[in-house]
Write a structure and sequence with these properties.
The chain is α/β, with parallel strands linked by helices. About 45% of the residues lie in helices and about 15% in strands. The protein contains 17 helices and eleven strands. The strands form two sheets. The protein has a seven-stranded mixed β-sheet. The chain has a four-stranded mixed β-sheet with strand order 2-1-3-4. A hairpin with a 5-residue loop joins strand 1 (about 25) and strand 2. It is an enzyme of class 2 (transferase). Keywords: Lipid metabolism, Methyltransferase, S-adenosyl-L-methionine, Transferase. Belongs to the CFA/CMAS family.
Length: about 425
């Protein structure tokens, strides 16, 4: 087929109602679009077949994971260009891509059919989450979702996250390393919780044990960490044993809803609430409130999204749901605060650290790219591609204020009204 790139570019511009912001290269070697920037490569016509059967993000995601589309040049620049075209055009473009009845979309599908040729629908890549059982955010289904995301090999996570093994937003200074920034984040949380020697800390979604280790080692806290990932638990227990802290830390493979041995002096929940889901968030807040002693503190570190004009219309991101965080949901910051208050907490402080997550994600992407061949050997080419796209796209989303991340410090304030927090808990810097 001669000059496939020009035909695809023309079709895309008609569909989107504007010029294509990136250069396009097709499987026949032809190119179209602006020069001097990154190039979107369509390596195989199977990518078009995926878009016909699944118009929009999921079709593109499947083609990316399968290696049928790729990027030459700076991935962040390409994602930023496409985000400006899609995110900031409002509901018009998204509605068009979602509606099979739209005449423009039907015409585009017919044009794509002529270019793609005869075909059956390609099978989804093996890395796609399938076979979910149980209702969304039931204990059984949550365990499946967590396993899909976290049980892909601890060595892979070591490669991406680095020695800190902390899988959440770091807390940066101008010239710090990733390990410095993650240590500073853990210490910030410990200080916000006012941890002291002998305090009981529950770390909900404890990951590979980094917060538990920091709290026990640096503050003498007695820690219970819970996770649904067996691989994480095995790894965390070994780290704890290696540091001689088994007398202070217990790691359980347990749903937080099954923890019954309160009260705790403090609870940390770092990057875990995104897995809870809107239908279960009040139960989450009630459970943690019930596990704290009067005067106890909760530090809830959570990614947020911008509010929707119609919150009932909110949908989980198709790519992330299928390949990264199955059933994961983001809530607006205000909704999280309200739910914590409804459960009885007094929210004493909210710190927004959105820019810090963009910096963190860029370091993780750099780690992945530097160890690409090993990452592929440890998982699969598709899995490595998933993580590169997911982390780079998330970095752009944080930079553009599409999503944010916040630390909520909440207290189970007793009837006396004494919250136990300082009059000036934070000092602002210019």
């Amino acid at each position: 087929m001669a000059d496939a790139a020009s035909r695809l570019a023309t079709l895309a511009e008609e569909l989107l109602g504007g010029p294509l912001p990136v250069r396009l290269r097709a499987w026949d070697g032809s190119e179209a679009g602006p020069v001097g920037g990154p190039v979107l490569i369509v390596r195989d016509r199977r990518a078009l077949r995926r878009l016909i059967w699944k118009p929009g993000e999921l079709g593109l995601a499947r083609a990316w994971v399968a290696g049928e589309i790729d990027v030459e040049g700076d991935l962040y620049t390409l994602l930023d260009s496409l985000s400006g075209l899609l995110w900031e055009r409002g509901e018009e473009t998204r509605g068009l891509l979602d509606s099979v009845r739209d005449p423009k979309l039907r015409a585009a599908a017919r044009a794509l059919l002529r270019i793609a040729g005869p075909f059956p629908p390609p099978k989804p890549p093996a890395e796609e989450m399938r076979g979910r059982s149980g209702s969304r955010h039931s204990k059984r289904r949550d365990k499946q979702a967590i396993s899909h995301h976290y049980d892909v090999g601890n060595e892979f996570y070591e490669l991406v996250l680095g020695p800190s093994m902390v899988y959440s937003c770091a807390y940066w200074t101008e010239d710090g390393t990733l390990e410095d920034a993650q240590r500073d984040k853990l210490d910030l949380i410990a200080r916000k919780l006012n941890l002291k020697e002998g305090d009981r800390l529950l770390d909900v979604g404890c990951g590979w044990g980094s917060m538990a280790l920091h709290a026990a080692r640096e503050y003498g806290a007695r820690v219970v960490g819970v996770t649904l990932s067996r691989e994480q638990a095995v790894y965390a227990r070994k780290r704890i044993a290696d540091e001689g802290l088994t007398d202070l830390i217990e790691i359980r493979v347990q749903d937080y809803r099954d923890v019954t041995d309160g009260p705790y002096d403090a609870i940390s929940s770092i990057g875990m609430a995104e897995h809870v889901g809107s239908v279960k968030y009040r139960e989450y807040a009630d459970t943690l409130y019930g596990l704290l002693k009067p005067g106890g503190r909760l530090l809830n570190h959570q990614i947020s999204r911008r509010p929707e004009p119609d919150e009932e219309a909110y949908e989980i991101d198709a790519f992330i749901d299928a390949y990264v965080f199955p059933d994961g949901e983001l809530s607006p910051m205000g909704s999280t605060l309200t739910t914590l208050e409804d459960a009885g907490f007094e929210v004493r402080d909210v710190e927004a650290i959105r820019e810090h997550y963009a910096l963190t994600l860029r370091r993780w992407v750099a780690n992945l790219e530097a160890g690409w061949d090993r990452a592929v050997r440890l998982t699969s080419p598709g899995r490595a591609r998933i993580w590169r796209l997911y982390m780079a796209a998330s970095a752009v989303s944080f930079e553009r204020n599409r999503i944010g991340v916040n630390q909520f410090l909440a207290v189970k304030t007793p009837e006396s009204g004494r919250s136990g927090t300082a009059l000036r808990p934070r000092v602002w810097q210019e």
